[in-house]
Amino acid sequence: MINRGKEIKIFTGNAHPQLAKHIATELGMDLGENEVGIFSDGETSVSIKESVRGSDVFVVQSTCKPVNNNLMEILIMIDACKRASAGRVTAVIPYFGYARQDRKAKARDPISAKLVANILSKAGADRVLTMDLHAPQIQGFFDIPVDNLQGVPILMPYFMKKFGKDLSNIVVSAPDLGAVTRSRKFAEKMDLPLAIVEKRRPKANVSEVMNIIGDVRDKTVILVDDMVDTAGTLTNSANALVEKGGAKEVYACATHGVLSGPAIERIENSVIKELVLLDTIPLGEEKACDKITVLPVAPVFAEAIERIYEELPVSTLFA
Known about the structure:
Cofactor: Mg(2+)
Pfam family, one: Pribosyl_synth
Protein name: Ribose-phosphate pyrophosphokinase
Helix content: 25-40%
Pathway: Metabolic intermediate biosynthesis; 5-phospho-alpha-D-ribose 1-diphosphate biosynthesis; 5-phospho-alpha-D-ribose 1-diphosphate from D-ribose 5-phosphate (route I): step 1/1
Catalytic activity: D-ribose 5-phosphate + ATP = 5-phospho-alpha-D-ribose 1-diphosphate + AMP + H(+)
CATH topology of the largest domain: Rossmann fold
Oligomer: single chain
Strand content: 25-35%
Structural class: alpha/beta
Order of helices and strands: EHEEEHEHEEHEHEEEHEHEEH
C-alpha cells in the first residue's frame, strides 16, 4: 500500500484500460480521471481532469495495435502532465512497440526503436517501465532510466504447478536462435535441459525450420519466446519438434500476444497443446482460442510502481 506523503496518480489511454485498472486496484487506489479521444480530423485529444501538480504520475499504455494511435496517446498524455507541473512522469509501457526495429538490417533502414525512445524522452517522460523488450539493448537507446521487467517469473510457476515435481521428461526449447538467451534463463531456473530450433527467415514474418539442436525425442517440450506475432515461427518450430525431433507433446509460452494476421488459425491448427501468454496486450474476442491461457501482469507492475514511488530497488523483481 502506498504510504508516502507525495501524491501518486495513475492514468491510462485507450490501449489497455483494463490492465491499468487492475494495476490501480493492486495498489489500493483508483485510476486518475482523464479523457483520451479523437478530434473530427483524426488528431488525438487528451484532457487530464484532475490536478497533477507535484504528483508522481504513471501513464499506463501499451503501444500495441493500433500502434501509432496508442503511441501518440501516451506522448500527448506525458506532455499534458508535464505542462501541468507533474513532479515526475513514468511511462508504463507493458508492450513496447517498434522494438523489433532496433538495428539496420540492410542499407537505408531506420532504427525506429531509437526514434521512439527519443520521442518519449522529448515528450517529458522521466523514466520508462516496460516488460521483456524484444532486444534488451534497447534500454541503451534511452537517456532516462528504463526498468525492463521479465515475464519468466510469472510464466515459470505456472508450468511448475502444471507438471508437478517430476520434471525428468521436460525440455525447454528456443523457437529460434534469437530466443536462446531467454529460453536458457527459463531452463536454468527450472533446472531443465535446453534444445534449440534452428531456422532461417527468407523474408519478414516467414520462417523455415532447418535443424533441431538437442534431444527432444519422447519428451514434453516448452517453447519459450518473448512475443507471438503471426505465430509462424512458433507453430513451425512446434511442428518440427514433433515431426523431426520426435517430441511427445509441445507447450508454448510468451510474454506478448500480438497475434496478428493468421496467428489464431495457425495456433489452432498446430500441434501446440497450450499457449500461455501474459496480458500486456489486450486479447479481444477476435483472438479467442481454446489453446490460449492468459496470466495477469498487474501484480508485478503494481509492485514495480510502488518500488519506484518509494525509491526502493526494482531489481528484486527480476529474480
